[in-house]
Amino acid sequence: MCLKKDATPVQNALEVAVEAAAAHTKGIRSVAGCEVQVIPSEEAADRGVTVRLKMVVEYGSNIPEIGKRVTGEVRRVLFRIFGLSVAEIVLEVEGVHLPE
What we know:
Blueprint: H1 9-23, E1 28-39, E2 48-58, H2 63-82, E3 85-97
Helix pairs in contact: 1-2
């Protein structure tokens, strides 16, 4: 996890929460990057966020199943901690970790 110097404290908190949720998902070896954008809607109470998440998965993992688990966990964490709904989650597999 790395904090971005040009990001706000809220932006950093959102990204840390997303990275932690993803990193603790079975089948994910590591998180290679994360970006969260808050998209305010016309009604202040109905905000949504867009999440872009890059990850490295374990060899032999079912990638579509990992995607479902990560998506569900990220949505749950952002709503539980910040009260934010998720408009979109974009997942990218940056690599596959091979066992030694």
